[in-house]
Design goal:
Elements lengths: L2 H25 L2 H63 L5 E2 L5 E19 L22 E7 L4 E9 L5 E9 L25 E9 L2 E7 L24 E11 L4 E8 L5 E2 L5 E2 L12 E2 L4 E10 L2 E17 L5 E18 L5 E10 L13 E4 L4 E4 L1 E12 L4 E13 L16 E16 L2 E14 L3 E15 L1
Parallel strand pairs: 10-17
Antiparallel strand pairs: 1-2, 2-3, 2-4, 2-23, 4-5, 5-6, 6-7, 7-8, 8-9, 9-13, 10-11, 12-14, 13-14, 14-15, 15-16, 16-19, 17-18, 19-20, 20-21, 21-22, 22-23
Helix pairs in contact: 1-2
Length: 490
């Protein structure tokens, strides 16, 4: 009860008492009346005090509850605000990136250090396996030089990445990656079997360098035709045969839908005409009318595309390529002649997830003039005879299949097989002579490996590879490689 109400009641009682006193005075009983009024006021005061005490007790409990509720609400809002800000910061700065003070850019430096220990039970096939140059039995002396041991750290890699937040168009990302698979000994020689210490001074080499912005990627990257997710892990640097592991300068645009589960990429990539001449020599591109690259000539970029659909069970991709192959050459009479043919490729690839991050993966591709887009067929996109001026794209195909299984979080293994084949042009030099080299017709590769990761970012892998090369003249070459790789990623 409020003080106003309390005073009103007391005032009313006094007023009532005054009236009673007046009446009683007229009756002559003043003292009795005054005592009676005093008793009434005292009784009323006691009642009012009890009412006020109850009100205060009643108000006290809700006040404590309200205070607890307000405190809980404030704490929840504060925690939500902190979580939101942390999420915003994490979104802007992913794990491993460092914010640059005073800017809206974050950077990341990464890479790995790796040493490879190689033993070739068959002939030596290089620091990374090169099936197109695999020695052929009964043709090259190297085919008999077996049991070669070698170690190198050329696959060690450095990378630099950046993320820059823009006001209205999302993030701008850059990435640069290099390794040491350039020429050795500062470009003066190829690896020999009795190399001096200086021969281990391998040159730094650009692998990837591109910018991502507003759906576009421009720079040097893996060809759009390459489905990186449809491969397993290998210790060998070049991976399984039959994959499209070309890296090209390019401009690519990628459209995404269904929360990124569906993507369609279209790229314009740096072209070059690769072909085999009438002596069986593999040619690429070089200066017009000369050079080791022969008479290859470029007039327009290669067109590549990939449609990829992802789901909980894995992904599937449909791939395509269109290119122009051109030679421009001088005849014995001095006339300049240009010949062009079209090239195309169509492929399908995918991965079916199994246990943990493992899965069954496969790729297949076929086309005319595929050539350099298949690592084993660089230099065999077309066949060219400068004497008869015949120039023809050659049909090729490649398939690979494998399984990657995680035994535990630390142990995983791969089993894979790849095959690459080509249908040589009818005017190709099928007969091998002292002036005509054997021309590769198919490649096969089988591998099995296992990886062990004792701690994060540190991995040990052991792998066995079997290689088979078939060439014109019924020549064959085989290789058996045991390889141990130890890698630390930072």
């Amino acid at each position: 009860m409020s003080k106003v109400l309390y005073c009103s009641l007391v005032g009313g009682a006094l007023l009532l008492g005054t009236s009673s006193m007046a009446v009683a005075a007229s009756g002559g009983d003043m003292k009795a009346t005054v005592k009676k009024l005093q008793a009434q006021v005292n009784a009323l005061s006691v009642k009012l005090n009890k009412v006020e005490a109850k009100k205060q007790e009643s108000n006290a409990a809700p006040s404590k509850k309200n205070q607890d509720k307000v405190l809980h609400d404030v704490t929840s809002r504060a925690e939500a605000y902190i979580d939101e800000k942390l999420a915003e910061k994490e979104k802007k700065t992913p794990v491993g990136y460092i914010d640059i003070a005073g800017s809206n850019t974050a950077i990341k430096i990464g890479g790995f250090v790796k040493i490879d220990t190689i033993y070739d039970a068959g002939p030596f096939t290089g620091d990374s396996s090169q099936l197109p140059t695999l020695p052929l039995r009964n043709y090259t002396a190297d085919a008999q030089r077996t049991g070669y041991f070698h170690m190198h750290a050329r696959q060690s890699r450095l990378s630099f990445a950046s993320l820059t937040a823009t006001k209205n168009m999302g993030e701008l990302a850059t990435y640069i990656e290099c390794d040491f698979f350039g020429t050795n000994n500062f470009g003066t020689a190829a690896v020999s079997r009795s190399e001096p210490s200086s021969a281990s001074a391998y040159n730094f080499r650009l692998r990837l360098a591109y910018v991502d912005f507003a759906g576009f990627r421009f720079g040097q990257d893996w060809t759009t035709l390459y489905d990186q997710e449809a491969t397993g892990s290998t210790v060998e640097f070049n991976g399984i045969s039959a994959n499209n592991i070309a890296r090209n300068a390019q401009v690519r645009y990628t459209m995404k839908a269904c929360e990124g589960k569906v993507s369609w990429a279209v790229g314009l990539e740096n072209p070059y005409t690769d072909y085999t001449d009438s002596t069986g020599t593999l040619k690429g591109d070089s200066a017009f009318l000369g050079g080791s690259g022969g008479d290859g000539f470029q007039q327009m970029p290669d067109l590549t595309t990939m449609l990829k659909v992802k789901g909980d069970a894995g992904h599937i991709a449909i791939r395509g390529m269109a290119r122009q192959l051109t030679v421009k050459f001088s005849t014995t009479s001095g006339a300049v002649i240009k010949k062009s043919v079209g090239g195309w490729a169509a492929g399908i690839s995918g991965k079916l997830k199994t246990y943990h991050k493992g899965g069954i993966y496969a790729q297949g591709i076929v086309g005319d003039g595929v050539g350099r887009y298949l690592f084993d067929l660089i230099g065999q996109g077309a066949a060219f005879n400068s004497t008869t001026t015949q120039f023809q794209a050659q049909r090729a195909w490649a398939v690979s299949v494998g399984i990657e299984h995680y035994w535990t979080e630390q142990w995983r293994s791969n089993l894979g097989y790849g095959h690459t084949g080509i249908m040589l042009a009818k005017f190709s030099p099928f007969k091998v002579t002292s002036t005509v080299l054997p021309i590769s017709r198919s490649f096969d590769q089988m591998l099995i490996n296992t990886f062990y990761k004792p701690i994060d970012n540190f991995e040990i892998g052991f792998e066995f590879n079997y290689y088979l090369r078939r060439a014109t003249g019924r020549y064959k070459g085989t290789g058996k490689r045991f390889q141990l790789g130890i890698k630390y990623t930072f």
